Amino acid sequence: MHIDLETLLVTPAEMAGIDRDAANSGIDSFALMERAGQAVAAAALRHYPGAFRFAVLAGPGNNGGDGYVAARALAMSGCPVEIFGFGPAPTHGDAGRARKRYRGPVRPLQDYVPAVGDVVIDALFGAGLSRDLDGQVGAVIERVNWLALPVVAIDLPSGVDGRTGRVRGAALQASHTVTFMCRKPGHLLMPGRALCGDTEVFDIGIPGRIVAAASHHLRVNEPGIWRMSLPRASAGAHKYGHGHLAVFSGGRLATGAARLSASAGLKAGAGLVTLLTPAEAADDNAAHLTAVMLRQIDNVAALRALIADPRLSAFVLGPGFGDFARARDYVMALRDRPLVLDADGITAFRDKPPELFSAFADGPTHLVLTPHDGEFARVFADIADDPALSKVDRARQAARRSNAVIVLKGADTVIAAPDGRALINANAPPWLATAGSGDVLSGIIGAHLAQGMPAFEAAAAAVWRHGEAGRRAGSGLTAEDLINVLNGLDQIK
């Protein structure tokens, strides 16, 4: 996978190991702390040059040490600064050294009275927090958030778990977050992402090779990761060379979702798209289709006859499908073919998950599951119920169990492969949460599979394109708007 530090994500435990490896390699750890604190001070001055007071809330660990450095830099710049410390003042290590170099007084955290005009420098806990905050800290956080004071968080807003993005009792709402070397999962997983404000990644001087060596195949979903897998049209290209996608329609009163998927698949680059419809819905579908073809399929025998044609290269089953028993039968018939299973296609296996997983257990991964949290819990109940797991952990475990690529949807969609690779998507605007949006995503993934993309790259590229389409369509979009603004594969830079 791509190793650009802009896309790489490391957990707090991995970052602690990176810090140790850097120190063991001969890099001065206090010099790293100095650079980190100076970067925070620079960001605070850049964004809030007119602050009445910089209130630095400093914890007892290295995050607090960064805060002492930032406070010293701000004071040397002539800014009004006060530090409020939580817990015992650091006396040893880099944090103790930073505390000694700060010449001003340090008052206890409970003395801090937030006031309009304050800019808070949050140096309490950072990304390594693994417990719920106590009441004293929670009370300060509540007062700061109630006044909506600007907060510049060091590494991660205090109260946000850097591994999971969850809030540990209470959390500061930051306007800006300054982190170092690369982002943590908590910067992108909800609700942490919403609490970070604008996140700036500052290179404090740890060699990229040390950072990359400690990571475990977790990245931000960006085109650089999958761009080389995108199919490119040659001068002699024809429609069959771009793949033939088939999408299953539901019954007469549930045809729209499948048509959205089919239209998205055609727009996303599939050379041909066929809607597979039951007889009861054939007339309704025929009245709405133009470039998308139509084929009546009412049972497994008819499906088996259809898929004898190898030119049908990928399938989407689930959007608006409704008939769970038939869905299971169709999936079993398609066990050797690239398949996107969404919505009702996933729910159809809520009582028989092992049947689905065993059907796709062998060979290269060619199944993509696209659940939201509720659908995920129906087929991966034990994984969904484990409170210790992050969203990334859940997606990875589900991918390994099912031998499928998992697209665990949401504002912080995670894409995971059975081999442990995982991506967190970050480009989806909030207005993408609209009826039919997921059906469009399934069609884009199907189009990528139909064109021969590997399942993981097909899903990752589709999730990113889906988010980009939402951004371009703007707030108030409908699912049809998403389809209309899907750009061609050759336009992704």
Automatic annotation (TrEMBL):
<comment type="function">
    <text>Catalyzes the epimerization of the S- and R-forms of NAD(P)HX, a damaged form of NAD(P)H that is a result of enzymatic or heat-dependent hydration. This is a prerequisite for the S-specific NAD(P)H-hydrate dehydratase to allow the repair of both epimers of NAD(P)HX.</text>
</comment>
<keyword id="KW-0479">Metal-binding</keyword>
<comment type="function">
    <text>Bifunctional enzyme that catalyzes the epimerization of the S- and R-forms of NAD(P)HX and the dehydration of the S-form of NAD(P)HX at the expense of ADP, which is converted to AMP. This allows the repair of both epimers of NAD(P)HX, a damaged form of NAD(P)H that is a result of enzymatic or heat-dependent hydration.</text>
</comment>
<feature type="binding site">
    <location>
        <position position="439"/>
    </location>
    <ligand>
        <name>(6S)-NADPHX</name>
    </ligand>
</feature>
<dbReference type="InterPro" id="IPR000631">
    <property type="entry name" value="CARKD"/>
</dbReference>
<comment type="subunit">
    <text>Homotetramer.</text>
</comment>
<dbReference type="InterPro" id="IPR030677">
    <property type="entry name" value="Nnr"/>
</dbReference>
<keyword id="KW-0456">Lyase</keyword>
<dbReference type="Pfam" id="PF03853">
    <property type="entry name" value="YjeF_N"/>
</dbReference>
<feature type="binding site">
    <location>
        <position position="158"/>
    </location>
    <ligand>
        <name>K(+)</name>
    </ligand>
</feature>
<feature type="domain" description="YjeF N-terminal">
    <location>
        <begin position="15"/>
        <end position="212"/>
    </location>
</feature>
<keyword id="KW-0547">Nucleotide-binding</keyword>
<dbReference type="InterPro" id="IPR004443">
    <property type="entry name" value="YjeF_N_dom"/>
</dbReference>
<feature type="binding site">
    <location>
        <position position="320"/>
    </location>
    <ligand>
        <name>(6S)-NADPHX</name>
    </ligand>
</feature>
<dbReference type="InterPro" id="IPR029056">
    <property type="entry name" value="Ribokinase-like"/>
</dbReference>
<dbReference type="InterPro" id="IPR036652">
    <property type="entry name" value="YjeF_N_dom_sf"/>
</dbReference>
<feature type="binding site">
    <location>
        <position position="63"/>
    </location>
    <ligand>
        <name>K(+)</name>
    </ligand>
</feature>
<feature type="binding site">
    <location>
        <position position="122"/>
    </location>
    <ligand>
        <name>K(+)</name>
    </ligand>
</feature>
<keyword id="KW-0630">Potassium</keyword>
<feature type="binding site">
    <location>
        <position position="438"/>
    </location>
    <ligand>
        <name>AMP</name>
    </ligand>
</feature>
<comment type="similarity">
    <text>In the C-terminal section; belongs to the NnrD/CARKD family.</text>
</comment>
<feature type="binding site">
    <location>
        <position position="372"/>
    </location>
    <ligand>
        <name>(6S)-NADPHX</name>
    </ligand>
</feature>
<protein>
    <recommendedName>
        <fullName>Bifunctional NAD(P)H-hydrate repair enzyme</fullName>
        <ecNumber>4.2.1.136</ecNumber>
        <ecNumber>5.1.99.6</ecNumber>
    </recommendedName>
</protein>
<keyword id="KW-0413">Isomerase</keyword>
<feature type="binding site">
    <location>
        <begin position="126"/>
        <end position="132"/>
    </location>
    <ligand>
        <name>(6S)-NADPHX</name>
    </ligand>
</feature>
<keyword id="KW-0511">Multifunctional enzyme</keyword>
<feature type="binding site">
    <location>
        <position position="155"/>
    </location>
    <ligand>
        <name>(6S)-NADPHX</name>
    </ligand>
</feature>
<dbReference type="InterPro" id="IPR017953">
    <property type="entry name" value="Carbohydrate_kinase_pred_CS"/>
</dbReference>
<feature type="binding site">
    <location>
        <position position="257"/>
    </location>
    <ligand>
        <name>(6S)-NADPHX</name>
    </ligand>
</feature>
<dbReference type="Pfam" id="PF01256">
    <property type="entry name" value="Carb_kinase"/>
</dbReference>
<feature type="domain" description="YjeF C-terminal">
    <location>
        <begin position="222"/>
        <end position="493"/>
    </location>
</feature>
<keyword id="KW-0067">ATP-binding</keyword>
<keyword id="KW-0520">NAD</keyword>
<comment type="similarity">
    <text>Belongs to the NnrE/AIBP family.</text>
</comment>
<feature type="binding site">
    <location>
        <begin position="409"/>
        <end position="413"/>
    </location>
    <ligand>
        <name>AMP</name>
    </ligand>
</feature>
<feature type="binding site">
    <location>
        <begin position="62"/>
        <end position="66"/>
    </location>
    <ligand>
        <name>(6S)-NADPHX</name>
    </ligand>
</feature>
<keyword id="KW-0521">NADP</keyword>
